[in-house]
Structure formats: structure tokens, C-alpha cells
Design brief:
With 358 residues, this protein is mainly α. It is 62% helix and 4% strand. It has twelve helices and six strands. It has a two-stranded antiparallel ribbon with strand order 1-2. Strands 3-4 form a two-stranded parallel ribbon. A hairpin with a 2-residue loop joins β1 and β2. α4 runs antiparallel to α7 and α6 crosses α10. It is globular and about 55 Å long. The N terminus is likely disordered. One of its GO terms (molecular function) is magnesium-protoporphyrin IX monomethyl ester (oxidative) cyclase activity. One of its GO terms (biological process) is light-independent chlorophyll biosynthetic process. It catalyses: Mg-protoporphyrin IX 13-monomethyl ester + 3 NADPH + 3 O2 + 2 H(+) = 3,8-divinyl protochlorophyllide a + 3 NADP(+) + 5 H2O. Its EC number is 1.14.13.81.
């Protein structure tokens, strides 16, 4: 019998070090921003709440949480085949996303240190949290005889420039959707322990509180900057980022539905619950949320999912690049049309939160 567990399943840059996943529109992004504009932000409108959040960061509730124990001391070769491949992809994507946050927050902390010390310390402490998360995930990859070279990742990835307000929209939603993703998986496995195929999920209850506190920080910063939340432009941008985050998660997760099935979850139902909860949470600060109950919302996402499957099939073919591009073009147009139609669905207006200054 051939031992397929020792057969390389992933491209490696050296033995045991996985080559980074190819960058696509759906992969975790690395960001940079206008540091000078961020440094000039006046936080006085909501400074008391920000200082209270800073004290929570300083308390470092999860300081001793991310410690591997005897639950990890076993072979994980029973997780094999396609499940193993999808599990490694899950760990890699999660590690890359956490490491992206670490890099951004660390650089913001360094650049703002002498100009906006409250923001700087908050970012430094959040970078501490993200470094722990990324390190814990990378160590988990070693149980599958792989790891990521995070230094190589730093140098090889392209960086997307976002203005500060876009950074706040995107990172707020990233942290809050992270909270709902982790807590939903944790609660499911708490009720169905037979589905917990790997111990990292048992860390998610405390872990997701880091995500929640980070999201609360971005909530407080945005409410200190009324221009980020007031007026037509703000409403349009909030709408765009909500849709982008929800669509990206849905298309990624449904592409990997076998992974969620391996831990006893239906990927569609899981994503719908996470999207609903994140949408409701965003309504506490954003002036609008999406109508995710509209019958067209998931219908159009399903159309994009089918289109993406066709795009992957074209990529896997042996045709010349020029021919591949010509075949892909109408599919790109189709996805763009679906996204535009989703964006134009009437959103739900939210009442201003008590204490919010406009």
C-alpha cells in the first residue's frame, strides 16, 4: 500500500515550508495606509471610551491562553485526503489573515507613537494579539508537517493602499466577522463534541473575545470621526464594505464546504448565520446595513459561486493563457453584474446610536 501521507500535497519553498497560496481577489490581503492622516485624527469626541478600551487591551486577558497542551500530543494522520488538504488551507488562510493584521497594527503603532500615543498603544497591543493568533495557527500547521515562512510572506505579498477611513471600515468588519465565525464554530462543537476533530477549535471561545475587543476599538474610533459615518458617501462606502466582506466569505467558504462538513457544519447555513449576526452588529455603528433577507441576496451569490467554479475549471485547463482570458472575460462581467445588482439592493437604514455625534 502506498503511504500517501508522506506524498507532498502542497508546493513548498523548502522542505516543510509551504509556498504561500496564490494571490487572488478572494485571498487575505495585506494593507498599508496614509500614516500622517491617521496621526492627525482628533479622538476627543470619544476619548473616554477609547481609553476604557485601551485599559482592556492592557489587561491582556488572553496572555496565557494560547499555550499548546497534551491535547495536541498525538498524530493527526487520521485527518487525511481532501479533508487534510482543506484543513491545511483553513489554517493557512487564517494564519495569513491574522499575520496581515499584525503587520498593519505594528506599523501603525510604530508610526503613530510620537504623534497620537493613544492610537499607537492600542495598535501595538492589538498587534501583540494578532501575533499570538498567527503563531498559534502556524504551530498548528506543524502538526501537518508544514509551516509558513512569515518573513518570506512579508516580503513577497503585494500591499493594498487604503485611506484611513477604508482601513477602519474593513478592519472593523474583519474583526467582528472573525468573532462571529469563531464563536459559532465553538458553540457548535461544544454541543457536538464528536465533531471536534482537532483541538484548536477548543481555543475559540476566548480567542474570539480578542476579535470582539478589536472590533469595539474600531467602532469607537469611527464614532470619534463623524465624517466616516455621516452623509451619502459614508453610507455608500459602508454598503460597499459590508457587501465585499460578506461576498468574499460566502464564496470562499462554499468553495471549501467539505471542510465545514468535516466538523459537522453546513457551510451555507453557517455562513448565513455569521452574515446575519455580523450585519446586525454592524448596525450598532454603521448608518446602514444590508438586507440579507432579500430573496435576491443569496440567489445572486449562488450565481457567482457557479461562475467561480467555471473560472477554476478554465484555470485548470491546458489551454493557452490568451484563450483562457477570452473564456474568462464574460464570466468576470457576469460576476461584476451580480455584485452591482447586490450593491443596488435597498439597504436598511439604522437609527443613530445613543451618544453618537453627527
Amino acid at each position: 500500500m502506498v503511504n500517501t501521507l508522506n506524498k507532498p500535497e502542497f508546493e513548498e519553498i523548502r522542505t516543510g515550508v509551504k509556498a504561500p497560496a496564490k494571490e487572488t481577489i478572494l485571498t487575505p490581503r495585506f494593507y498599508t495606509t496614509d500614516f500622517d492622516e491617521m496621526a492627525k485624527m482628533d479622538l476627543s469626541v470619544n476619548e473616554d471610551e477609547l481609553l476604557a478600551i485601551l485599559e482592556e487591551f492592557r489587561a491582556d486577558y488572553n496572555q496565557k491562553h494560547f499555550v499548546r497542551d497534551e491535547r495536541f500530543d498525538q498524530s493527526w494522520d487520521a485527518i487525511d485526503g481532501e479533508t487534510r488538504k482543506l484543513f491545511v488551507e483553513f489554517l493557512e488562510r487564517s494564519c495569513t489573515a491574522e499575520f496581515s493584521g499584525f503587520l498593519l497594527y505594528k506599523e501603525l503603532g510604530r508610526r503613530l507613537k510620537d504623534k497620537n500615543p493613544v492610537l499607537a498603544e492600542c495598535f501595538n497591543l492589538m498587534s501583540r494579539d494578532e501575533a499570538r493568533h498567527a503563531g498559534f495557527l502556524n504551530k498548528a500547521l506543524s502538526d501537518f508537517r508544514l509551516s509558513l515562512d512569515l518573513g518570506f510572506l512579508t516580503k513577497s505579498r503585494s500591499y493594498t493602499f487604503f485611506k484611513p477611513k477604508f482601513i477602519f471600515y474593513a478592519t472593523y468588519l474583519s474583526e467582528k466577522i472573525g468573532y462571529w465565525r469563531y464563536i459559532t464554530i465553538y458553540r457548535h462543537l461544544e454541543s457536538n463534541p464528536q465533531d471536534c476533530i482537532y483541538p484548536i477549535f477548543q481555543f475559540f471561545e476566548n480567542w474570539c473575545q480578542d476579535e470582539n475587543r478589536h472590533g469595539d476599538f474600531f467602532d469607537a474610533v469611527m464614532r470619534s470621526q463623524p465624517q466616516f459615518l455621516k452623509g451619502l458617501k459614508a453610507r455608500l462606502w459602508c454598503r460597499f464594505f459590508l457587501l465585499s466582506v460578506f461576498a468574499t466569505m460566502y464564496l470562499n467558504d462554499l468553495q471549501r464546504s467539505d471542510f465545514y462538513r468535516s466538523i459537522g457544519l453546513d457551510a451555507r447555513e453557517y455562513d448565513k448565520e455569521v452574515i446575519q449576526k455580523t450585519n446586525e452588529t454592524a448596525g450598532r455603528v454603521f448608518p446602514i446595513i444590508l438586507d440579507v433577507e432579500h430573496p435576491q441576496f443569496y440567489q445572486r451569490l449562488e450565481t457567482c459561486l457557479t461562475t467561480n467554479e467555471k473560472l477554476r475549471a478554465i484555470d485548470a485547463s491546458n489551454q493557452p493563457k490568451a484563450l483562457k482570458f477570452l473564456r474568462k472575460l464574460p464570466l468576470y462581467v457576469s460576476n461584476g453584474a451580480q455584485f452591482l445588482a447586490l450593491y443596488l439592493l435597498k439597504p436598511i437604514s439604522m437609527a443613530p446610536r445613543e451618544g453618537m455625534v453627527f
